[in-house]
Design a protein that fits this description.
By secondary structure, the protein is mainly beta. It contains two helices and 14 strands. The strands form three sheets. The chain has a ten-stranded mixed sheet with strand order 1-2-5-4-3-14-7-10-11-13, covered by helices on one side.
């Protein structure tokens, strides 16, 4: 089965959404895995979005879970590498614990060595969920309307990639952080991925 291109589903966000700002107010430790640092920080953040909304700021490698008109939980994330960034408004359509991973045709073309680790799954060929799976401990599946964007917010088996432009467009989180976000985020949650500003713009 041919996978649709991810970019076909993504629309640009109105520029006003990119004006959100934040200032760290306090650290809130939450130890939910093998990592020693806090899963998130409570920060001042005025977005104009209702509580529960997720806002991803790729340029600064942060994801925000809006708490109220003045505060959000801030998580550090890894985002798309050069040429794989995107912006748009999506919805959490599904959630899975230790999800299976079915790589897209694009990923297989760029990384054919992955094939040696793939097995037959219910929905295609890929990798079973587990600690070595690229999707990590949890995944939130992002859709626009009735269409799967093929983008996810997910954990990772490469924690050193957090804070970097390293993915094929998905939003990566440390496994302890994505477990925390997963537990807070119901299906139907609005997810906004902000456009990255060009230098000098």
């Amino acid at each position: 089965m041919n996978h649709p291109t991810r970019r076909g589903f993504v629309s640009l966000i109105p520029g006003a959404l990119a004006l959100s700002g934040c200032v760290t107010t306090q650290s809130q430790p939450r130890y939910t895995g093998r990592y020693k640092g806090p899963a998130y920080q409570v920060v001042e953040y005025q977005s104009g979005q209702k509580p529960g909304t997720i806002i991803v700021d790729p340029g600064n490698h942060f994801l925000y879970s809006v708490q109220d008109a003045r505060q959000a939980l801030q998580y550090e994330v890894g985002v798309g590498k050069e040429g794989y960034g995107w912006s748009g408004v999506t919805t959490v359509h599904d959630k899975k614990e230790w999800p299976d991973w079915i790589p897209t045709a694009d990923i297989l073309q760029r990384k054919p060595e992955i094939r040696q680790y793939m097995v037959r799954l219910q929905n295609g060929s890929g990798m079973h969920g587990g600690p070595d799976n690229p999707l990590g401990a949890r995944a939130l599946y992002l859709w626009q309307g009735n269409a799967d964007t093929l983008y996810r917010i997910h954990g990772t088996n490469e924690p050193d990639s957090i804070g970097q432009n390293a993915s094929s467009g998905c939003i990566r989180m440390r496994n302890d952080a994505v477990v925390d976000l997963y537990d807070r985020t119901p299906i139907g949650t609005k997810v906004i991925v902000l456009a990255t500003r060009s230098v000098g713009a």
